[in-house]
Write a structure and sequence with these properties.
Elements lengths: L1 E3 L7 E10 L6 H15 L1 H7 L3 E8 L1
Parallel strand pairs: 2-3
Antiparallel strand pairs: 1-2
Length: about 60
């Protein structure tokens, strides 16, 4: 999900990433650790986008 600026060129000023996990008895502590490591250390795309826009995320377990 994202929010664009009003003026042209329209760029994303806010981005929201949903991490969706499906399964039974998923360990929430391990999911949170994996997502946080991805966001903070390993995902180059997140690092790049965070320099240009407000980047938030949420974890959804189904």
């Amino acid at each position: 999900e994202g929010e664009l600026t009003e003026e042209h060129p329209k760029i994303y000023q806010k981005l929201h990433v949903k991490y969706i996990f499906k399964g039974k008895d998923l360990p929430m502590d391990k999911i949170e650790k994996a997502v946080n490591l991805s966001q903070e250390r390993y995902c180059g795309v997140s690092a790049m986008l965070a320099k240009a826009a407000e980047l938030t995320h949420e974890i959804v377990v189904e």
